[in-house]
Amino acid sequence: MDETRSMTKGSIYKSLIIFALPIFISNLFQQLYNSADSLIVGYFLGNDALAAVSSSGNLIQMLIGLFNGIAMGAGVVVARNFGAKRDDELKRAIHTDIVIGLIMGIVLTVVGVVLTPLILELMGTPASVMPDSLTYLRIYFYGSLGLVMYNIFTGILQSLGDSRHPLYYLIISSLTNIVLDYVLIAFFDMGVEAAAMATIFSQFISALLCMRLLHRLKAPYHLDYRALKIDQTMTIEILRNGIPSGIQNSIIGIANVVVQSNINAFGNLAMAGCGAYSKVEGFAFLPVTSFNLALTTFIGQNMGAGLKERAKKGTIFGISCCVILAEVIGLCTVFFAPQLIGLFADDPAVISFGSQRAVVAGVFFFLCAFTHAYGAVLRGLGKPVIPMLNMAISWCVIRVSFLMVTGFLFDDINFVYWCYPLTWLISSGYFVYYIIKHKGLLN
Q1: Taking the CA of residue 62 as centre, how many other CA atoms within 13 Å lie in the half-sphere pointing to its CB?
Q2: pLDDT in tens, 101-124
């Protein structure tokens, strides 16, 4: 079985779209099963439970960000060697990546379980929400090995040009998660722990299916369990590409935890409303996220094959698609915000909080999309430090500073909402400056 596909030949536009479409559908199902937790929990268990589950996303992002970034870096290394047809280096990169993933999964389990209570306290989580938040997160992190390995395996397959099988496996995982959520909560009368248990069980299913496919590939670089070991050269290359992206993810996660702390100060209704909006935003950015992953793989394969002009054309097309799609979706989010937030809760106050945030952010989705898209290009070029520094300064330092000042001067949640578009503008402005200074997208 060999579903790998080179993106170094044929129509650029067709290659990117065909590759991005399964990723989009995969992300859609992933977001569906993430949202299923909030939908079912909110309906059967109430606003406090909804706040506990929905507000956990930023903390999870902060703790898994480093590991997901390293997985992204490994994907760049795999894509380059695949594009250059270096099978021996490709095999060593894949097997080293898997071993690194196993180590990261174990570390994340320990760190997540140990630090969750402390971080929830520092975030100012309300007493009414604390027990459910702690229960949900601890069970989630007990199963984090499945999440890490799924991301590792998916990153490898996508870098080899296979975006279809991760889609199939994620559909199976998503349906499993939704069914378990409903059965455990509605019929067995379990609490938020059921949502966490359903999620981790589903993640292990998708990870094991991806592992099985890699093992069965009819190629010299297929997964051979006896070849699993750390290769020093490949480890250095993976970490060189991955650590900056991981630091970037973690820094953004830290900033978002600070944002969540400010939201928590306005009570559980604000937490539930903003948490529901985050689920809506997650769906809204799926096309952008899909093109970003496609861009990184496309750039990595074509630069590995020495096709700079083809990589440049793909960059222009990919960024344009991201920006246009994001803005169209953002405006739809603004117009239909009450109805979208209402899918997660029927409390007018919860809907109001979520809708207000949607109106502030939706108009400026194009800025966020441009930043992410050009960052994806730079990662494909092997320059992950540049987007890391840009987002560390604009999305963390400036965002947190803005919140500290406005939080001290004003007791108004709208300033929390505005910290996002303002910092998107700053990060986009820097990338425009960078492109002009270097006289081109790929220089």
Answers
A1: 23
A2: 899 889 888 888 888 888 777 767
